[in-house]
Amino acid sequence: MTIKAQSDVGIYSAEQGLPGSLLHWLNEHKSHDIFSDPQWYQALIEFKQQHEAPLGIKFYWFFVLSNDSPVVAAPIEVKNNKIKFVANFYSPCSELFYDRETLNVRQAWALLLSHLTYLRPGWLSFEMFPLFPEQLSRFKAIALELPVTVFNYNFSANYCSDFKDFRTYWNSRSSRLRNTHRRRTKQARQHQLEFQIHDVCTPELEADYWYIYQHSWKIQEPSRCFIHWLMNWAGEHKILKLGLLKIDGKPAAFQLWLVNGKCGSIFKLAQDKRFDALSPGTILMEHMVRQLSQNSGITKIDFLLGNDEFKALWMDDKVLVSGAEIINRSHVKGRLLSMMYTIKNWLKGMNRNTRNGDKYD
After folding, report:
1. Burial, 39: exposed, middle or buried (Cβ in 10 Å; 0-12, 13-18, 19+)?
2. What tens digit of pLDDT does each residue of 35-59 get?
3. Which domains, from first to last, does the chain contain?
């Protein structure tokens, strides 16, 4: 059901679904085959509605139109006069849907921000995460053209690695990692090892996943529903790779990869703490990279988000990822909020420099 329809925008409740023509448009104009798929966002919205969203938050699909045809679209959550791009800890990236034949990405974002008044008159702020450096730079450039101010904050980090083949990749790993893998593999071979890589999730595999997860160091999930959806959705779209290592017949380590073209994205991994002495996660990781490189042809590994130190052992590149709140200075409260953030950031800088021994006149 359309909540509001004007010559330049279309706003649809996420609970009601979208007309087929708009869903088709989204599928034709997504920025990432996996993490910008409309089904991805719909599943994320349903999860947030069930487990995260406090009272008063509404979810929409927001379209900017030109001659009654979409040119920009975004999944949006709204509470009072604050707007957010739909995301949570499952989101490794966020980007608009837009018509690349008529707009570049900077123009698309400027168009979206300039039309938010249709969604929420007098909107105060628009928040988005995660943002990679080029995305943050884009917002700051847009802020020079629109009456908005961008305040960014540290959010996470992305580790990834590009390589020619597995041999090249493995030889470029640190001696620390290769020696650890060699020692732990030698110890583990005193037991019965069973490696599995699956393209489709079964109830038995999902049970093994949660068994390992519950016995790992991981913070427990608020719900299993999103991961359940993701495993089945990825299997249907033939991008799923579930890696399992059993030791003496018992599940010891599990990895959930999404393989799209030449890129393998590691979405979830865990190992049973009771097998820590054998480092089953390390053993399985080497096996997954080797097999997916040789059999699926991947030449890039993406650890997605998470500033875990161990990732640096496996990856070559690290990029800091930000979040940003864009304040609407057309709103009197926005000007006050912008001033407050500016003062707050200035005081943080003063405290940081004072701790470093700097003196101020």
Report:
1. middle
2. 999 999 999 999 999 988 778 899 9
3. 2-156+321-355 (3.40.630.30), 164-298 (3.40.630.30)
